[in-house]
Design a protein that fits this description.
Number of strands: 12
Structural class: alpha+beta
Helix content: 25-40%
Shape: elongated
Strand order of the largest sheet: 5-4-3-2-1-6
Order of helices and strands: HEHEEEEHEHHEHEEHEHEE
Number of helices: 8
Length: about 270
């Protein structure tokens, strides 16, 4: 009985994902014919970027599911993200995929453990077989994962712990000098203190040429998520996991070193 249930569950979830995509394409783009879509609207599992296991543990979702326009550009007509709680975020694109026509939030009535089982099957029968970004119908999903396979998949979470911590850190706040955010200076000095609360990363970022008066004036500072500063200066990513008590100065375009209080800060120039 359990085997029959789980087989029907695997089939049901994938069919429901396909149905959600097709139904909303038809409703949002009523003048679009499905023969204008790749393989008449076939839904593809897009596991080629990060892989199923990475998406599950780091991004708390399955790889995205997409349908594409059948033209030379071959851009997306729909993109569905299925989160591990059953939530679905769907984008429908018009103008041959260049414009978001509608954002839709819905859900699939499914448990996290059921979606985990599907992730195990998708990894085994897609990623492990080097099948990337293929139609969902070309991936074997009727196979039932064994308890050992599920346990092995769960045990692999440990390999993503650093990335999970880093992702959580990216959303936390940092103090940033307006010499960086408004005047265009690069980060020349960065330090991390003990976070004050759950939203605080502990990091502060400075050009390195601020004097004490400037640094103590609240109007010269701003609060930004760490990802925003790291996006502006990707070099910071190599040091972002450093613990409280860290103080670093820029040595070159792509390197920071420990601040010993004697070496000059390099990189105080504007971009």
């Amino acid at each position: 009985m359990d085997c029959v249930y789980r087989k029907s569950y695997m089939h049901r979830v994938l069919k429901e994902i396909e149905s959600i995509i097709h139904k909303n394409i038809a409703e949002v783009l009523p003048n679009l014919s499905f023969d204008e879509l790749e393989d008449d609207g076939t839904v593809f599992l897009m596991n080629g970027k990060n892989g199923t296991e990475f998406e599950w543990y780091v991004n708390e979702k399955l790889p995205v599911f997409m349908a594409f326009y059948n033209d030379e550009a071959n851009m997306g007509a729909a993109k569905a993200t299925i989160y591990d709680d059953g939530g679905v975020l769907l984008y429908i694109y018009d103008e041959q995929g260049s414009h978001i026509a509608k954002e839709i939030k819905t859900y699939i009535d499914v448990t996290k453990e059921e979606l985990l089982s599907l992730a195990v099957v998708l990894r085994k029968n897609a990623d492990d077989k080097l099948i990337w970004d293929k139609a969902i119908g070309s991936i074997e999903t009727d196979e039932i994962p064994t308890e050992a396979e599920i346990a092995e998949f769960k045990s692999n979470e440990r390999f993503y712990e650093e990335m999970i911590r880093r992702k959580a850190l990216m959303g936390k706040l940092a103090v940033v000098s307006k010499r960086i955010t408004e005047d265009g200076y690069r980060v020349g000095y960065m330090k991390r203190e003990e976070p004050r609360d759950e939203e605080d990363s502990g990091w502060s970022f400075w050009a390195g040429n601020e004097d004490e008066e400037y640094s103590n004036a609240i109007e010269n500072l701003g609060l930004y998520p760490v990802w925003h500063i790291a996006d502006v200066d990707p070099t910071l990513m190599s040091y972002i996991d450093k613990p409280a008590g860290t103080a670093l100065i820029r040595k070159s375009d792509d390197e920071f070193i420990d601040d010993n209080g004697e070496d000059p800060v390099i990189g105080k120039w504007k971009e």
